[in-house]
């Protein structure tokens, strides 16, 4: 019986989990911490990475795996700042899968690295469903998206080891209830730390970097509850 | 052979197309125009609908099908403005499928309706892949997402019968190149009309309503090329 034309979703998920487990082994054996940044298109993921490069780069060797459907624009932004970056193109898919991440990691100088940041495809829904072997998912929500997104798209916020509210400098210009947003996040996740960041002014960036460093030192984000 | 435990993706797509065809028949026989609004979480889809209710409501009978992963928040917003609205919950899925839309349509007073707006799940990637029997997809991109999203997520912009750039009132407060954004949209779609809207001030809303009315009158969005 020839079933080669049938795509079996269940099997693909098993395949993903297998590669996520392989990635975890690879990270452990090279003592690398990997963080998976997830948020909507334009939520400020790349800008968040750009804002921490200078400070973090003095203490750690890191690389970025840049996930996109098409184009290398974000990778070019980071490359222009001399960040070691690889581009992962999904070819239309709305999320990164573990095998693609594993293959990209294998091409990096792992022995020289401390931290790998993965910037997932811009999407608040699907990337949260896929384990890529990361130590923590980081949810990035921009103020311009509205305070209710944590309860409208709860899976990511539930899964996240840290939540970053970005673009807080725009609050005076938009209708956004920060207190309500915090409460919505706490409705779905009462444990993970919450950071409020305006990358353009630098406000809140240091706290986010501090958490990244602590996570790196302990390599166990679950130790870092709400601060 | 018992294959009931295996989810067959290919078959689901065929199933979706079948229900999209049924939906088209249902819309045609009731002379209803259906528009499918697609954009990121917080891109301004609900606000765009809110902004046109008063003007459009004087001339047409319309209803809204509100797609969400969880919660009925957007439906409640529209219901409070006395818009006939049904909530379509995907139960975790990142897009609306045709069968759910068909079932929801069947429960509406179709003989009394002229236009149905579908607000899809907030997602710039997956909803563009699914035909739900609509007359046109409408891409909604907020200025806060950045001008490069049309080339980073080209499928939706390629498929769209109209593109709305929302939140143009925020341009003075952010880094957003409107001219470049227009060019990026034209790189992937040189035909569909482009609207620049600030729902909070009303700027550009009339042009968007005019297009909706023309589309309704002709029931053939492909007649309306770039204006």
Quick tags:
227 residues, alpha/beta, 7-stranded parallel β-sheet
Mean pLDDT of chain A: 90
The assigned structural class of chain A equals alpha/beta
What would you call the quaternary organization? homodimer
Share of helix of chain A, binned: 25-40%
Number of strands of chain A: 7
CATH fold-level label of chain A: Rossmann fold
Order of strands, main sheet of chain A, comes to 3-2-4-1-5-6-7
The assigned CATH architecture of chain A is 3-Layer(aba) Sandwich
| Biggest interface found | A-B, 40 and 41 residues
- As for the number of domains of chain A, it is 1
Low-confidence runs of chain A (pLDDT<50, min 5 residues)?
7-11, 220-227
The CATH superfamily of chain A bears the name P-loop containing nucleotide triphosphate hydrolases
Shape label of chain A: globular
Layout of helices and strands, plus pairs?
2 copies of one chain form a homodimer.
Chain A: H1 9-29, E1 33-39, H2 45-57, E2 62-68, H3 73-79, E3 85-89, H4 98-106, E4 115-119, E5 136-142, H5 149-152, H6 154-159, E6 162-166, H7 178-188, E7 194-196, H8 205-218
Parallel strand pairs in A: 1-4, 1-5, 2-3, 2-4, 5-6, 6-7
Helix pairs in contact in A: 1-4, 2-8
